[in-house]
Design goal:
This protein is mainly alpha-helical and about 230 residues long. It is built from 5 helices and no strands. The chain folds into 2 domains: about 90 residues, no CATH class; about 130 residues, Methane Monooxygenase Hydroxylase, Chain G, domain 1. The radius of gyration is 35 Å and the shape is rod-shaped.
Length: about 230
C-alpha cells in the first residue's frame, strides 16, 4: 500500500501538496507520450519536457507566493505555457542543428566522390597525353606518305581538341564545387556551435584541390602539344 505523503504536510498545505502531486503525475505521463522513435518524437519530447519543467516550477512558485490551491494551479498553468514555449525553441534549434549535420555529411560524401571521379579522369588523361606525345614524335621522325601523315595529324589534332574541351569543362566544375563547399564550411564556422563534421568536408575539399591542380597541369600540357604543331 503506497503511503499518502501529504499527511506530513501542514493542514493548510495538504490540498496544495495533492495538487502538486497530481500535476506532476499528469505532466510526466504527457512527456512519456512523446516517443523519440516516432516521426517528430524528439521535438515533441523536448517540448513536453519544457512544459513539465515549467509547470512544476510554476506550481512551486505559485504555491510559495499564494500558499493556496489557486496559486499553485495558476503557477503551474503559466509555468507550463512558458516551459512549452522554451521547449519549442530548443526543439527548433535541435532540428536546425540536425539538418546542418545531414547537409555537411552529404557534402563530405559528394566531395569524396568528385575527388575520386576526377582522379580517375586524370589517370586516363595522363595516358592519353603520353600517347599524343608519342604520336607527335612518330610524325616527326617516321617517313610516310602524305596521305597517311595528313590522316595521323588530323586524328591527333581532333583528339587534342576533344581532351582540351573536356578537361577545361571538368576543371570549371571542380572549381565550382570547391567554392560551394568552402562557403558551406565558412557558414558553419560562424554558427554558435559549429558541427564537427566540417572536418570531413574540409578533408574532401583538400582532395578535390589536389585533383584540381592535376587538371591544371594536364591542361597546360595539352595546350603545349597543341601549340607546337610542327609535324
Amino acid at each position: 500500500m503506497n503511503p499518502d505523503w501529504t499527511v506530513f504536510l501542514k493542514p493548510g498545505m495538504q490540498s496544495s501538496g495533492k495538487c502538486l502531486m497530481a500535476a506532476g503525475i499528469f505532466l510526466a505521463l504527457l512527456a512519456g507520450c512523446a516517443t523519440p522513435g516516432a516521426p517528430g518524437g524528439d521535438a515533441s519530447q523536448t517540448r513536453a519536457e519544457g512544459a513539465v519543467a515549467g509547470a512544476l516550477i510554476g506550481a512551486l512558485l505559485g504555491n510559495a507566493a499564494g500558499n493556496n490551491r489557486q496559486g499553485t494551479v495558476v503557477g503551474a498553468a503559466i509555468g507550463g505555457l512558458l516551459g512549452a514555449v522554451a521547449g519549442d525553441k530548443v526543439a527548433t534549434k535541435k532540428a536546425e542543428y540536425a539538418q546542418r549535420e545531414d547537409q555537411l555529411l552529404a557534402a563530405a560524401a559528394e566531395a569524396r566522390q568528385v575527388a575520386q571521379q576526377t582522379k580517375e579522369y586524370n589517370e586516363r588523361l595522363r595516358k592519353d597525353i603520353a600517347q599524343l606525345e608519342k604520336t607527335e614524335q612518330r610524325l616527326r621522325n617516321e617517313t610516310m606518305t602524305a596521305q597517311a601523315r595528313q590522316q595521323a595529324v588530323t586524328a591527333n589534332r581532333e583528339k587534342i581538341a576533344s581532351l582540351l574541351q573536356q578537361t577545361d569543362r571538368n576543371l570549371v566544375d571542380v572549381r565550382k564545387r570547391i567554392a560551394a563547399q568552402q562557403a558551406m564550411i565558412q557558414a558553419e564556422q560562424q554558427q554558435p556551435m559549429p558541427s564537427a563534421n566540417i572536418v570531413q568536408v574540409a578533408s574532401g575539399v583538400q582532395d578535390m584541390q589536389i585533383q584540381e591542380r592535376n587538371l591544371e597541369r594536364a591542361l597546360a600540357q595539352l595546350r603545349l602539344i597543341d601549340s607546337r604543331r610542327a609535324y
